[in-house]
Amino acid sequence: MNNAPVGVLGGTFDPVHNGHLRLAMEMATALEMAHVRLVPCARPPHRGAPTASPGQRAKWIRVAVSIEPRLRLDDRELLRDGPSYTVDTLASMRKEMPDTPLCLIMGRDVFAHLPKWHEWERIFDSAHIVLIDRPDIETQLHPDAQATLDARAVGNMRALHDSLCGLIYTYTPPPLAISASRIRELLANGESPRYLLPTAVLDDIMDAGVYMTCESHPATAANT
Ligand code: ATP
Hints:
With 224 residues, the protein is an alpha/beta fold. Helix content is 34%, strand content 14%.
């Protein structure tokens, strides 16, 4: 098999920012992916409810990726009832793309808590994981996450093209210390996050008045 993988970057995207977008671009280029899908979750099971609505978060991603064919919005989690379990999202993508390697992209901060996710081991039945080092966030891996990494790690990205799922590849893109929580904090304090996120997204946030008055929820280490 030599099929270009599709990257899957899940997250809260509250809001999408240049850290997410640049990361997706780096992945598409360095790992020779067909494209990378940004997949906003509706109801993250392991953290507080997002401040912006699902519709707003999806709209901002759509605006942000509209100029780049290698990046796409995938809003299937917003169209589904119940919690946004990554294992279900990947299983549904696997059905649609039976012959395409899928690469779930996640920060090491998120991978650290993977064993708390719903049916986390089944993720490897549908996808590889590409692990991103985030030097701005310190993380201690859960022992089961460490054991999984030891068992599934590959050192060559070609392996991600040669099989459909089951491997872990670590990649360290040039770091961008940008987080959605920092952006929410700046807005809540009446300061500007300009240049941390696309201008069109910031303009829409300002027009809608999102994050300005509400307390931004604190970042937690775990995700979907
Ligand atoms: P928050 O600050 O609200 O926790 P976040 O900016 O970390 O949000 P998420 O939407 O939770 O963004 O992240 C989605 C995915 O993108 C996660 O796997 C996260 O590790 C990764 N990510 C977010 N920001 C960056 C960044 N600056 N560099 C690399 N990866 C990032």
